[in-house]
Amino acid sequence: MEETIAAISTAPGTAGIGIIRMSGKDVFSVLKKIFKPIKEESIEEIKGYTMKYGKIFNPETSEIVDEVLVSYFKEPKSYTQENMCEINSHGGTIVVRKILELCLKNGAQMAEPGEFTKRAFLNGRIDLTEAEAIMDLIESKSDNQRKLAMNSLEGKLKNYIHSFREPLKKLIANIEVNIDYPEYYDIEEVTKKDIEKEVEKLIPKLQKTIEESKSHQIVKSGIKTVIVGRPNVGKSSILNTLINQEKAIVTDIEGTTRDIVEGTVFINGVELSLIDTAGIRNTDNVVEKIGVEKSLELLEEADLVLAVFNINEELSKEDKELIAKLNKDKTIIVLNKDDLANKINKSNFDFYHIVSTNTNSLEGLDSLKDEIIKMFSLDMLEETDTFLANNRQLTCANKALETLLKIRENIKSDLPLELIEIDLQEVLNELGTITGEVYDEELLDTLFENFCVGK
Asked: What's the distance, CA 340 to chain centroid?
C-alpha cells in the first residue's frame, strides 16, 4: 500500500487509445519526470478531475514517446482513494508498453492483478460485493448479467446484508452488557425469547435469499450444455443451427467429430455454453476412442445434457448403453430428424424431458428451446436486488443459515446465554465475510488474483 503502482488498463492490441494507470502517494512525482504539459504548471496547481494535454518523453534521452491526455485524480476523490492519474495515449502494443516502462523506471512498481480494486476495498471506498461486481460487469456477456452486476455495484447487496447484521450487532451488544454488568437494574434484560424472536425473523429471510440466488446463478454463470449421441444422429447440425454458424463439420461419414467443438447461444438472456462431443460408439480408432472418452467425462461436468437420437432408426445397443449413463434430472432426450419416418417410441425413455426436432430450419429446434426454458424456469426468473453473486457469497450465507438453525435448536435445549452469544457472533462474522467487513489476507489474495491487471 506504500508503493506507487502502475499498469496498462486497456486490452492489448491495436486500438484508438491505450490507458496506463497509476495510483499511490508518489504518482505525481513519477508523472512529473516523464510528462510535459503544453501549458507549464506545477502539480500543486493542477486540480483533480481535470485533463491535461502534453507529451510523454524519455528523461534519459529527451525523446518524445507520444502525445497524450493525462487525467488527474487527487486523494481521496479517486477510484482507489489515493492520488491517481490515467495516461491516455494512442493505442498499440508498443506505445503503451513504452509508457508503462517509463513509469516503472521512474519510481512506480508493477501492479498485481486487481490491485487497484484491492486498494479501493482496503481504503474503504467499496466493499467486497462491489469489488466482485466490478469484475462481473467487465465479464458480462448479456444484458441480464450486466443488470445483476450493477445491482451489487450500486451497493444494493451490501445494504441488504447490513439489514441482517445490524439487529445481530445490537442483540450481541445487549447480551454482553447483561453478562458483564448483571448488577445494573436499569439495563434492558435480553432473554432467550428475545433472541428466538429475532432468529425466527432472520431464518426465512435468509433462506429466501439463498434459494433465489441459486436460481439466478445461471444468469451469471450460464448453463454448461453437452450434446451427446451416436455418430450421425445430428449433434453437430444441432450445434450449428442453434448458434447460426457452421462451426462443427457435418458429413455423412461416421466419426467426423473427434474432439469437442464449442459454441454459445443465449436463451431468454441466459448463456448456453454448447459443447458438441465425439459420437459415442465402440471404435478401434485411437483418436476417435480418446474423443469418446472425453464425451463421457463431460457428462458428469455438464449442467444440461442433450442426448440426441435419430428418430428414423431403432435404438441400437450403443444407444441403450448411453441411456444407462444419463442422469435424467439434467438430460433432455432429443429425437432428431422428425421430418423422417418415426421408428422410436417415446415410451422407451424413462425421462422427464423429451422433444422431437429437426435442423432443416431454426424453427425446427423451437421445441428444444422451449424445453430448456421450462427445465430451468427461464421464463420465471424475476429481477432481484439481493442476488448473491458467486459461490463464495453463497457459502458464507449457507454457513450463517446453518448456525441460525443451530441457535434455534440450542434455545429449545436451554443452552446458557453465553454459548448462544458465541453462535450469534459466528453468524455475524459469516455475513461480514460476504461484504468484507470480516476478512483475511488469504481470502483477498485469492479473490483479486482473478482480476485483470490494471483494474
From this structure: 43
